[in-house]
Write a structure and sequence with these properties.
Helices cover about 50% and strands about 20% of the residues. The chain is an alpha+beta fold. The strands form 3 sheets. Strands 10, 11, 12, 13, 14, 15, 16 and 17 form an 8-stranded mixed sheet that branches. A 5-stranded antiparallel sheet has the order 2-1-5-4-3, with helices on both faces. The protein has a 4-stranded antiparallel sheet with strand order 6-9-8-7.
């Protein structure tokens, strides 16, 4: 019987332990993935907010406005110039030998040369000088500050180009564009083939930059910036590109559009943690990535970065064409190349967020945490995932250990059962166990032994002793709690603790505390018309309300003298804003008294004095001791309270100096000032608004 019960218990415990461990591990991993996902989402949103604010700010900068006007004017001046045939020939040679071959590697079909050349005379003129005749190699065309021509445009370019080039370098943009109201890109930093082309008529009129420009132009709204999603951008040889743009106004006239080409590197750095996935808690197979509504990636895959060959092999096993794989290798990114058509993406695109075990874009089981990510027109999905095999590695190891341990334990139980089968020492063992529990302080340990022999009698006596000890212990603990509660109701917390430790002569000097002393006006006269019970009930309600407000703001009540109320801030716990806390308490007390008087129709009001400074505090008396405070600060507070008109708060010169930027004060009325010139008090009028401050 012992062997059977033990074996069943071991197996059930092992199963429950494994199942519980698996659930807990899954929950923990999901929580970690969700935390990482939320953190990355916040970083991406912050990044887009920053570039939007930066773009809006730059579009209103006088230098950008002046540059837009000057570039547009200078560009227009060359619309009627004569272009030598050699210029067009060299420009065609550049497109035929440099641009189109690179574009053909990533674009389907054979591009037509004439369709990509700019149609405008000025456009061909400037592309010749800044692209075709630029001695710097492709990718370094922005190094040219001044071309060889003597045009006004080149002089303007030489002045502004170093500044704008530094902007995109410093803020991490890929390129910067100035576009006139007719759709012509009159300036770019990077000098790709979109330079001086027209977004309405030329080759790139269907690009996402052209769509974004038209949206900005049609909005005609100030303080406006918009981001457009990634799309293959031909001037960048088909690489994925996203743009942000804002209108440029000269007073009320739209004179152009400022646009930036956003770099994929910044987004990848956020999503990959600068390639430090393990330090982000994603282990060896975890990653966070973005997916657009078209189910294409908007950030790079970890597996492409770490193992391009293995990534390509995985795609081939899933039936991905060699053309798509070559395009991924060509661009070196999975953005706009890798489809992610998983259930997590599908749910997130519907606006849902959650966690789930799914198969990812590699058809590998993963733990996935997904959520929508929508910002300024971008309809994306953010996912954090880790391979199931890595996430469950600890539980698989735990399962194997349980099987081995359970087998060994069952063998051990078999041996023990055989040895102990004929021993009748169970009652003694139970009593020993109960005794040890009592010795360890567990006074509710009851020995479950109900036999009718000597051991049963001994167990009953033992249980009665334990119950008696438990009852007495509970009574002592209750008494201690009552004593502590009584001390806390009489003394401040710090004083009560010192008093409990046996300190009798308690006195200390306290610096820089705030003192509030109030007096109910009209209460003495009112109490003559009420019974003692009614007077006490009114005063008790008000004092209770005052206590709650004081406790909320960290003030400690010292005492009440009839209808007077004395409280100190900074007694047990020092504060940097004790004066403001006292003012806040005073304002709350005024509201309490006014509301109380209004609701009950009573002619009550309150006068409050507030001072800040040094005090002396201590316990006075022996048999019936009380905690009290005194000193010049207390005396001045009393005088302020006495001089304060009903319904007002009168503060000292010290409090006024500290809080005059937060509250409106006015000097004490002249009649009080004449009678108490040394008082120098200030009446609180109202809280200062942020604009006034």
């Amino acid at each position: 019987m012992l062997l059977t019960v033990s074996s069943c218990s071991i197996l059930i415990t092992a199963y429950l332990g494994y199942r519980s461990g698996k659930l807990n591990l899954t929950h923990r991993v999901f929580n970690q993935l969700t935390s990482v996902r939320a953190s990355k989402a916040y970083q991406i949103e912050s990044y887009f907010k920053n570039i939007r604010n930066h773009t809006q700010t730059l579009s209103e900068d006088p230098a950008i406005i002046a540059a837009m006007q000057e570039f547009s004017t200078a560009y227009s001046q060359l619309q009627t110039t004569n272009i030598p045939p050699a210029f067009d020939q060299k420009l065609k040679t550049y497109y035929r030998d440099e641009f189109l071959p690179r574009l053909t590697q990533t674009e389907a079909g054979l591009p037509i040369l004439e369709s990509y050349l700019p149609k405008a005379i000025a456009g061909r003129y400037f592309q010749y000088y800044y692209i075709a005749n630029n001695s710097h190699p492709v990718g370094k065309k922005d190094s040219l500050d001044h071309s060889q021509d003597d045009s006004e445009y080149s002089r303007i370019h030489a002045r502004y180009h170093p500044i704008f080039r530094k902007i995109i370098q410093k803020f991490g943009y890929y390129d910067m564009f100035l576009i006139d109201p007719q759709g012509t890109i009159v300036y770019t930093v990077f000098k790709e083939t979109d330079f001086t082309t027209n977004l309405d008529n030329d080759a790139y009129n269907s690009s996402n930059l052209a769509h974004l420009y038209r949206q900005i132009r049609e909005s005609k709204t100030r303080d406006y910036a918009k981001i457009i999603d990634f799309q293959a951008y031909p001037p960048s040889y088909g690489a994925p590109a996203a743009f942000i743009a804002a209108p440029i106004f000269n007073q009320s006239e739209l004179i152009g559009v400022l646009a930036f080409q956003l770099p994929v590197n910044e987004i990848n750095n956020v999503m990959t943690g600068n390639l430090n996935w393990e330090s982000d808690g994603l282990g060896k197979t975890g990653e966070t990535y973005l997916v657009g509504r078209d189910t294409l990636m908007r950030s790079i895959s970890r597996f492409l970065v770490q193992d391009p060959e293995g990534y390509a092999k995985t795609l081939r096993s899933l039936g991905v064409s060699e053309t798509e794989i070559n395009r991924i290798n060509q661009y070196g990114t999975s953005i706009l190349q890798q489809y992610v058509q998983t259930s997590g993406v599908s749910e997130a695109l519907k606006g849902k967020q959650g966690t789930r075990i799914i198969r990812d874009y590699r058809n590998i089981p993963v733990l996935s945490s997904f959520a929508p990510l929508r910002f300024d027109g971008l309809d994306w999905v953010i996912l954090a995932e880790i391979d199931l095999s890595e996430a469950y590695a600890p539980i698989y190891s735990f399962r194997n250990q349980i099987l081995i341990s359970a087998t060994l334990l069952m063998l051990l139980v078999t041996l023990i059962a055989m040895i102990l089968a004929n021993l009748f020492v169970k009652p003694i063992n139970q009593l020993i166990k109960g005794t040890r529990q009592v010795a360890a302080g567990k006074l509710d340990a009851i020995v479950p032994l109900e036999t009718e022999d000597e051991f049963g009698e001994l167990a009953k006596s033992f249980n009665e002793i334990v119950r008696s000890l438990h009852t007495q212990t509970l009574l002592v603990e209750q008494k201690n709690r009552d004593n502590e509660k009584l001390l806390l109701s009489v003394f401040p917390t710090s004083v009560a603790k010192r008093f409990q430790r046996g300190e009798k002569d308690l006195a200390e000097d306290l610096s820089n505390v705030a003192v509030l002393f109030s007096d109910l006006t009209g209460f003495s006269k009112l109490s003559n018309t009420l019974s003692a019970y009614e007077s006490v009930a009114i005063l008790n309600n008000l004092v209770t309300a005052f206590d709650e407000v004081a406790e909320h703001y960290g003030m400690e009540k010292i005492k009440t003298i009839g209808d007077s109320y004395l409280a100190v801030c900074g007694l047990s716990v020092p504060y940097l804003d004790q004066d403001k806390r006292a003012i806040d308490v005073a304002l709350e007390m005024l509201m309490i008294v006014r509301r109380f008087s209004h609701e009950r129709g009573l002619p009550l009001n309150i006068s409050i004095g507030i001072n800040s400074g040094d005090i002396v505090a201590g316990i006075v008396g022996r048999n019936r001791c009380i905690f009290d405070v005194w000193g010049d600060t207390i005396n001045l507070t009393t005088a302020l309270k006495n001089a304060c008109p009903p319904g007002g708060v009168l503060v000292s010169q010290t409090v006024y100096r500290r809080l005059q930027d937060l509250y409106h004060f006015e000097p004490i009325p002249e009649k009080e000032a004449n009678t108490k010139p040394q008082l120098n008090g200030w009446l609180l009028k109202s809280i200062r608004s942020p604009i006034e401050g």
